[in-house]
Design a protein that fits this description.
Strand content of chain B: under 5%
Number of strands of chain B: 2
Signal peptide (chain A): 1-21
CATH superfamily of chain A: Cytochrome c oxidase-like, subunit I domain
Strand order of the largest sheet of chain B: 1-2
Distance between the termini of chain B: 88 Å
GO molecular function (chain A): cytochrome-c oxidase activity; heme binding
CATH architecture of chain A: Up-down Bundle
Protein name (chain A): Cbb3-type cytochrome c oxidase subunit I
Radius of gyration of chain B: 25 Å
Oligomer: heterodimer
Radius of gyration of chain A: 28 Å
Order of helices and strands of chain A: HHHHHHHHHHHHHHHHHHHH
Structural class of chain A: mainly alpha
Keywords (chain A): Electron transport, Membrane, Respiratory chain, Signal, Transmembrane, Transmembrane helix, Transport
Domain Cytochrome oxidase subunit I profile (chain A): 120-601
Shape of chain A: globular
CATH class of chain A: Mainly Alpha
Chain lengths: 601, 336
């Protein structure tokens, strides 16, 4: 406790120094500016962890190679036997025969009890121990008794989300290629300006939001030990949100947008459907929690209920017209686009992780209080930092300064959340090589720390000076919306769907999904971060603008390569999803409820 | 005492209530304050045509790649002579119609150049139209999309009098008897782009940009002291958009300066006049806009000296005095 206080004290002493260091803006030694160093360190963390995972895997592979070497030695021995003389063989065999004839009675070493695993210690039986390429992962050993209606809702929400993910990232991939080949097509509805918001909105409201709500339905029902208040409302919301994404995308491609503010490009009649969908979802969740069968409200439900109410407020503030002429619109834009990410995607997803991570590890969350701390600080700090998207803009200086200071304050909820997740995983690290769910959780957690902290240092005035308006922003948003949110969502989906449907995806394909998505994201991120930095420095040098376009070209190629890997991983994910849910109704619940011994043996 | 762990109602009310309070404080109140902005005295409202152009600008979502904000830092000085202020957006940032809000023209990404002052930087309508038809016709390294749907292909015989024909180079469009004409949308969009000019502040321009790195600043000062302006750099900033870095221009759109008699003539009066007043004597090329108000005598002299001594051209340098003389002469002519 004392140590903790010391750390906080030290932090408070250092913080003003870090912030005031931002006052002098010089690029003489940009490499040693705190923001840039911070970013390097954060990226290095991800690298190191990836290398550790890889090392563990390679280690397992080398072990199995060694075992094979032993096999070859045995074969060499066999050959030697073949080459022996008949007389020699006879002598050896006679000797052996005598030895073999000697028999124990069979009960010298044992009692008369029948062997059985009464305490359930045996969790898995290796059926193919010589498989050299992949570690066999732990099978899902228990299934959950879930009402069919709820199962159907979860599966259809995730199913629709998967469809939007594949379509939305296909569009994203196409946009990435347009940087390399600007003359790819000459259709007005496929032009870059119109298609860019189609991509962002589709993966936001289509993929992430639907997947989150679908997974949320299960959490709400499970942690309240209750039935969902009204199943048919869930279907209404499902239809409304899907209709929003469909109509919104068509409208954007037709050139009808709300004025180009990022993430509120859908015009209000379309976004209204989304808002109604959220309101219905909120009431449904709230009523379920209100009639819960246990007295405490689980921390996940704090996050989920709050994120719904915050987002409803946010959508209303973002679309009301009374204060949005002139730069009023810009103030609201900074507020809206940041809160959209922070209060909706981040908050809801964290709520999901607070349930699915401990449940996947079959142990409680490390600290409930840290979760509560993270919740309130998330609300306090995240709300204040929207204007950091407009540093050096004509917006009032005090608004920009608040945004920068509170961006630094984001350390508290982020460190609280990361610590909580990592400490929950502590002691179960060996699960990383044994489970196909945990690597997703681990990468999500690391990116939660890295992506959020990187965002905070990016708000500092110097780093903003170099990076703002460059492709670095695009890298940051993929690091968070993809590295954090998408990876967490995949972790939750792979954790829960097999338990609902009784069908597990092929481990090779889940591994393929994981590594392609991870390597793809890394290539995407690093290329745009490096290119974005050089672009910013080129602007500072006062070079002609077109030079910054020319220098970006190789980085854009690498971004397209990374994007392709990510897209392929989504196709694999879509297949895995299909495999997990196909024919889920035919599997009888009695089969699902098999005792553990039967499944493992 | 509140027990959020057990009272769902209080939990939701507290989370919602605090969030709404913070939102009002950090978003709604400042937004209302910013809305009270008034226009700069000289600021021009958009005409109906320019407003129509703004609608095309929004529909094509040009904001995805182009910013319209000059930040108060040195590197943004190339996009405007002063940092943007809230009043700059008085006329352009109004609610578009019932369905669409005030456009987010400030932007968040500078994949293409900032457009705050594009009307001053690039006043030529012909350049804009060709650039929209195919950006790579004028800027070979550009990654901007082409907008062919803003143009129409018509039979030369059916050409109407008020049709605006776009001078497209042969490599891009070569159909005998056909011409490319600009649609109404393209013309209005160009009207809007030409409208985008930074309004001068009543008190004159004060340089309040935060300087970039000291080294560059020092080098620049040295350069200016040591012998004036860099003609090559000025040329690439002001002239190369049309005449290209190679000086060869674009056949069918912008004339070549290489070996041009106007450029290399011993008498520089005509050349200086073209720069000061613009030029529209040849129907096979686009119109050259005047640069007299935009460039100083020293700058014009530096650019012309560069033109006359590059790409194989070999003529005597132009001095600022030469330019000043012609400028005086032109002004006298105008006063008559």
């Amino acid at each position: 406790m004392k140590k903790c206080k010391m750390v906080i004290l030290l932090f408070l002493v250092i913080l003003p120094n870090i912030l005031s260091a931002q006052e002098k803006i010089t690029t003489d030694n940009w490499l040693s500016s705190p923001g840039i160093i911070g970013t390097f360190v954060l990226i290095a963390i991800v690298m190191i962890i990836a290398i550790v995972i890889l090392f563990v895997k390679i280690n397992g592979y080398i072990d199995s190679l060694k075992r094979r070497q032993i096999d070859t030695n045995k074969m060499a021995f066999d050959d030697e036997l073949v080459a022996l003389d008949d007389a020699d063989i006879d002598a050896i065999l006679e000797k052996r025969k005598a030895a073999l004839k000697y028999k124990l009675k069979g009960n010298e070493l044992s009692g008369s009890a029948i062997a059985s695993d009464d305490k359930g210690l045996i969790q898995r039986v290796e059926k193919d121990p010589n498989n050299a390429y992949f570690d066999e992962k732990k099978k899902t050993s228990l299934s959950l008794e879930t009402p069919l209606e709820l199962k159907k809702i979860v599966i259809y929400y995730i199913g629709a989300a998967t469809l939007w993910l594949v379509l939305g990232t296909l569009i994203g991939q196409y946009l990435g290629m347009k940087f390399v080949w600007p003359e790819m097509d000459h259709q007005s509805w496929l032009s870059f300006g119109r298609l860019r918001p189609v991509h962002t909105n589709m993966v936001f409201w289509g993929w992430s939001s639907l997947a989150m709500i679908g997974l949320g339905y299960f959490v709400i029902a499970r942690t309240s030990n209750n039935k969902i208040h009204n199943y048919s409302w869930a279907w209404t919301a499902w239809a409304l949100i899907n209709a929003t994404v469909l109509l919104g995308s068509l409208a954007l491609m037709a050139g009808i947008n709300n004025g180009g503010g990022e993430y509120r490009e859908y015009i209000w009649p379309i976004m209204l459907m989304f808002a109604i969908g959220l309101i219905i979802t909120f009431i449904n969740f709230y009523k379920t929690v209100a009639t819960r069968k246990i007295s405490e409200i689980y921390i996940s439900n704090w996050f989920i209920l709050a994120s719904l109410i915050w987002t409803i407020v946010l959508a209303i503030i973002g679309y009301l017209p009374f204060y949005q002429d002139g730069l009023g619109e810009t103030v609201i834009q900074g507020y809206y686009m940041h809160q959209g990410v922070g209060m909706w995607f981040m908050t809801f997803t964290l709520g999901l992780v607070y349930y699915y991570l401990p449940s996947a590890l079959n142990k409680p969350i490390y600290s409930y209080s840290l979760g509560v701390l993270a919740f309130w600080t998330q609300m306090l700090f995240y709300t204040m930092i929207g204007t950091h998207h407009f540093v050096f803009s004509p917006l009032p200086w005090w608004l920009q300064t608040i945004a920068i200071v509170f961006s630094a304050g984001m350390v508290i909820p982020v460190v609280a959340g990361t610590t909580n997740f990592l400490m929950t995983m502590k002691g179960s690290w060996n699960h990383i090589s044994k489970s196909y769910v945990l690597p997703f959780f681990l990468v999500g957690t690391i990116f939660y720390f890295v992506g959020s902290m990187q965002g905070s240092v990016q708000a500092f005035r110097f780093t903003n000076f170099v990076w703002h308006f460059t492709d670095f922003n695009v890298a940051h948003s993929h690091m968070t919306m993809y590295g954090i949110v998408a990876f967490f969502l995949w972790a939750c989906i792979y954790a829960i769907l097999p338990k609902l449907t009784g069908r597990e995806p092929s481990q090779v394909l889940v591994g393929g999904h994981f590594w392609l998505a991870f390597i793809g994201l890394f290539a995407y991120m690093i290329s745009l971060m490096a290119g974005g930095t050089y672009k910013g420095l080129s602007w500072i040098e006062g070079n002609a603008f077109i030079e910054s376009v020319i220098l970006m070209k190789p980085y854009w190629v690498w971004r397209a390569v990374g994007g392709s890997l990510m897209f392929i991983s989504h196709l694999i994910f879509a297949y895995n999803f299909y495999y997990m849910v196909i024919g889920y109704k035919k599997i009888k619940s009695s089969v699902l409820a098999k005792p553990i011994e039967e499944i493992t043996v | 005492m509140l027990n959020f762990h057990k009272e769902h109602k209080n939990l939701v009310l507290a989370a919602g209530g605090v969030f709404i309070a913070l939102s009002i404080l950090i978003a709604i109140v400042p937004a209302f304050q910013m809305q009270g902005t008034e226009p700069i005295p000289d600021e021009k409202p958009l005409t109906a045509e320019e407003r129509e152009g703004l609608h095309v600008y929004v529909s094509e979502n040009c904001m995805a790649c182009h910013t319209q904000q000059v930040r108060n830092i040195e590197m943004d000085n190339m996009w405007g002579s002063r940092p943007s202020i809230p009043s700059d957006y008085y006329y352009s940032k109004k609610r578009l119609d019932v369905w669409r809000q005030s456009p987010s023209v400030l932007g968040s990404e500078r994949t293409g150049p900032d457009l705050t002052d594009i009307g001053n930087r690039q006043p030529s309508e012909d350049w804009h139209l060709l650039h929209l038809y195919n950006p790579r016709a004028v800027v070979s390294a550009s990654v901007m999309p082409s907008y062919p749907w803003l143009f129409r292909e018509v039979d030369s015989a059916l050409l109407k009098k008020d049709d605006k024909v776009v001078a497209v180079p042969k490599e891009l469009f070569n159909k005998p008897g056909k011409k490319i004409i600009a649609s109404n949308d393209a013309l209005r969009l160009v009207d809007y782009l030409k409208y985008l000019k930074q309004t001068e502040l009543p008190g004159g321009t004060i340089n309040d940009f935060i300087p970039a790195l000291k080294k560059i600043q020092a080098e620049r000062n040295e350069g200016q002291q040591a012998g004036g302006l860099d003609g090559a750099k000025l040329f690439s900033q002001v002239c190369a958009a049309c005449h290209q870095e190679t000086g060869k221009g674009i056949v069918g759109a912008f004339p070549s300066l290489v070996g041009s008699t106007i450029v290399t003539d011993g008498d520089t009066e005509k050349l200086i006049r073209v720069v000061l007043q613009g030029y529209d004597a040849r129907t096979d090329y686009g119109v050259m806009p005047p640069f007299g108000d935009q460039l100083t005598d020293e700058e014009i002299a530096a650019i012309l000296t560069h033109e006359r001594s590059s790409w194989g051209n070999d003529a005597a340098p132009v001095t600022a005095d030469d330019v000043a003389k012609v400028r005086q002469y032109v002004e006298m002519e105008l006063n008559k």
